[in-house]
Amino acid sequence: MSTLRSILGLHRIPFVRHAATFQIGSIVMTATGLISSVLYARLLGIEQFGLFAVVSSFTGVICIIASFGQETTLVTFLSEAVGRKNKTDIETVLRYFIQSTLLAIGFYAILFFLAPTLATYLDSGATVGGLARLLILNTALQSPPVLVFLMLQIRGQVALVTILENIRALLQVGISIVLLLLGHGVEGIVLSMLIVSVLYLPVCAILYRRHARILGFPHMKMLLQTCHQGGTAPYFRQGLWIAFDRQISRNLYPNLFLLVLEKTSSLSVVGLFRLALRLGSLPADMITPNITRLSAVTIPKLAAQNTERLKETCLKLMKGMLGIISLAILGVALIVPPLVPVVYGAEFSQSILPLLIILPFNFISAFSVATVPVARLFKKVWMLTVSNALGIIVGLSGFFLLRGLIGPLNAMSASILLYHINSIVLALILWRFILTQHAKIKTDRLARETAILEHNDVTV
Fold first, then answer.
1. Cα–Cα distance between 449 and 110 in angstroms, integer?
2. What does the radius of gyration of the chain's CA atoms come to, in whole angstroms?
């Protein structure tokens, strides 16, 4: 009975409630993504599906120079500042976000004009460069939703965030399908992303104005007028480390893997691999982002208020994630492979074995929900960067060693698994750091309590 009461009482815990809300939204997002992948594959065909993957990967790789880590840095430091209720720090963090966003827009403008030339230089073709221009514009418009959705999350408006994200995903898919049916091909998919991003700009402006007043944030006009002021250098330094990590773990991986595969095989193989990676990542895509988003806000706030609970919270997060994701992996392994030729078409059947090779990496993603926020909080982001860079070297080295034995498609799938296995070492190092910090806190507290008792004895 006590166990049942504990389970039923979980809904009273804000973190659990918010995680459940995000999870419901994630299911809708994942379903939307799966439906879109089926429709894209059917309407584009295997080669054009591969071309879409190459355009996305090319854009991601060249946009590295325009990223300063501002989106991720904002989540960590704004949440921490709000947890301390420090108005000065809040204004400084927001000013840093404006400065870094404006700087990024300048780089995006340069990339927009250079994209066709860069694509030709890399032998990807003018078509890839022209389509990349639209994706560059879309990427440049992502900062407003990042800020506004974080504000809503800080206020506990998780349901609204989920609704807004799902509407955006559904709009994008709907518009892209219409454009595909009208014969616009890959360009139709890219245009749909850009159209939705433009539509969300006024929505973000209205939401910022409304919720900034409640949170005590400065008006956007004031932030723009004072964006030349200093005090933001520490955030830029930390943001650059975070950017390096993000560009390796979310950009070079998997984009560099896709580009290497394109140079060593055909667009058809790229299309098969892209589908295998999409389906093999389903467990992590459904579960990890929601828990990671919440832990990215919760762990810094918790550390600012009660550092001693950090170890306990991180351990619970990892255990819970491992249990949930294990069930998701089993479900994907049993259900998805038989459906691939039926849903996507017989030509995509060759993606089943690569899917099964990739699938085990999802176990490893359970550790990242705690290790990534902790690394950012304790200024150990350089560890993430080094680990992910080594992972890319290990993964691609494995590809070149294995491609002659098992073929490029299976070899690249194995390289993805090697990339993630490499990160286990980082998780162990960071966990030891957490334990060391926990022991230090307990020792310091015991010393303070002893000093107080001795002082009281002397007084008496």
1. 59
2. 23
